[in-house]
Write a structure and sequence with these properties.
By secondary structure, this protein is α+β, with helices and mostly antiparallel strands. The protein is 29% helix and 35% strand.
Amino acid sequence: MNRPSAEPRASRSGEVLHTALAFGATSLLLVLLAIGSLTVPHAGSPRRTAFAVGAIILAAVGLAVSIGIVLDAFSRRRALRGSMRRGERLVGTFSAESLRPGPQGRAAPVTLVLTDQRLLIQHKDEPPDRPRSIEHAEIAGIEPLDTVVCSRLRRCVLQRMRLGDGEEIQLRLPASVGLDFADPRDRYLRPRERQLRVVVTEAHGPTPSRPTQPLSTLLMDDSPTVCLIELGEHYLRVIGEHSSPMADLFFYFHWRHMRVAEPRSNETPGLPQAWLQLTLVSHENSSLVITGPPASIRRVHQWALKAGAQPLPEADAGD
């Protein structure tokens, strides 16, 4: 199994902020050069003076547009941070278009915000603090369809995303953005048979395979942390995606030495109330509490019992 990188890299493609800053800096430089050309003594002519004044006006317009784009991008980022959950991390943002079904369907510009918990689809004409939220577990499949010509100088790739309830969302991305989107798409949005992501909200006791290492080292800053878990036939493995590659070699738990509680309602503030949480006890003195979408938590619970874990009484689960 290929281990994910220790820190997901947010894609720079699809973000207008950096391009706007570059254009703004260039426009400012042009304004300064044009002003300088008017003040330096030289054998000028009315034509050169008019050219310099025109350059100043055009550069000033470009600078004003760039400043407006930067301010809008900062406001959207601030709104996005306000809607982030506990333990959630940004993977990348990508510019795209949402294609409406039907022969007369139009393309609506959107921003895809991918985190390690969900995919946010942010429409340009909607408030930035109210994007559509799609959990990773809700996505039944996502695949590239075709490469199309968007204009004479631009090619795009089509992506089709199928949700668990049967809905299909078709997206069109510029070719360069599609290339950057491919890796995080395959890592986070493609369902896997034995792997899924959950939020580890509690970790107590020693690590069974290495008693000198506290199990709480799974958590970043002792806060809820998204982890990739692998459901093996004989073991459960927990991979901390944001830790160093060697830090989680010992986070594996044999099913036959584990007890699993019944899924119950989420009690962790800052995470969706519709989520469920599950308590896993290993070797009687080590325990994990994982939280996630109902489908993911029920899947772990059923797999654990099928693989040999014993039921955990409710009285013990609440301790």
